[in-house]
Amino acid sequence: MAYWLLKSEPDAFSWDDLTEKGKAGEPWTGVRNYTARNHMKAMQKGDLCFFYHSNIGKEIVGICEVIALAHPDETDDTGKWECVDVRAVERMPQPVTLADVKANPKLSEMALVTSFRLSVQPVLADEWAEVCRMGRLAPAKKAPTSAKKKN
DNA sequence: GCCAACGTTGGC
DNA sequence: GCCAACGTTGGC
């Protein structure tokens, strides 16, 4: 079980867009960065990801779950790029803004601060718990029971 | 809209 | 394989 952070400009694809996809989820296409791609290749089914709105909002708005391992990105003609599929799990009761993250000394090493341009980032368990706490999500909660049932 | 950070490209 | 030029991202 690992934790990640996915960034998206809400103009292009927002948390609400992912929520509308329901349990079927959505392929996380369009990543054209090797580091980000390698992170996606390392993802396992059931790994959880923060969903971060860049540019507009600049806040972590929810949690999504990896439901398919890395596979070729159909929006890519070169065959180099891959994507995972994710689905929305839970909205943050209180979105955690970039300013909130930067203001928290416990999160000073978070990739969102140190590698802010990277679109797919690893998140440490401690950081995950802290952001969940700030977002008023129970930190021990891995996933809501409704989302644990497969298929 | 500016600009810093940084990844990628391509000439050598 | 180095590194300068260039393009893109994304916060401010």
Feature tags:
ph1033 like fold; THYN1-like_EVE; PUA-like_sf; 26% helix; DNA-binding; 6-stranded mixed beta sheet; 151 residues; 6 helices; alpha+beta; single chain
Explained architecture:
With 151 residues, the chain is α+β, with helices and mostly antiparallel strands. The chain has a single domain (3-137), classed as ph1033 like domains (ph1033 like fold, Roll). It contains six helices and six strands, in the order βαβαβββααβαα. The protein has helices at 15-21, 34-42, 98-103, 111-114, 125-134, 145-148, and strands spanning 3-8, 26-27, 48-53, 59-72, 82-97, 120-123. The chain has a six-stranded mixed beta sheet. A hairpin with a 5-residue loop joins strand 3 and strand 4 (59-72). The chain is globular. It starts with a strand and ends with a helix. The model has no long low-confidence stretch (mean pLDDT 90). It binds a DNA duplex (12 and 12 nucleotides) through residues 7, 9, 33-35, 54-55, 58, 98, 115-119. Residues 2-134 form the EVE domain. InterPro entries: 5hmC_binding, EVE_domain, PUA-like_sf, THYN1-like_EVE. This is Ubiquinol-cytochrome C reductase.
The side-by-side strand order for the widest beta sheet comes to 2-5-4-3-1-6
For the secondary structure, the number of strands is 6
User: Biggest sheet, in brief?
Assistant: 6 strands, mixed
CATH topology: ph1033 like fold
Q: Which ranges are low-confidence, i.e. pLDDT below 50, for 5 or more consecutive residues?
A: none
Fourth-tier CATH superfamily name: ph1033 like domains
CATH architect. name: Roll
Series of H and E elements:
EHEHEEEHHEHH
Specify the structural class.
alpha+beta
The total of helices stands at 6
Number of domains: 1
Gap from first CA to last CA: 19 Å
Helix proportion range: 25-40%
Please indicate the percent range of residues in DSSP E strands (runs of 2 or more): 25-35%
Gyration radius, rounded: 14 Å
CATH class: Alpha Beta
Shape: globular
Please, what is the average pLDDT? Answer: 90
InterPro entries: 5hmC_binding, EVE_domain, PUA-like_sf, THYN1-like_EVE
Protein name: Ubiquinol-cytochrome C reductase
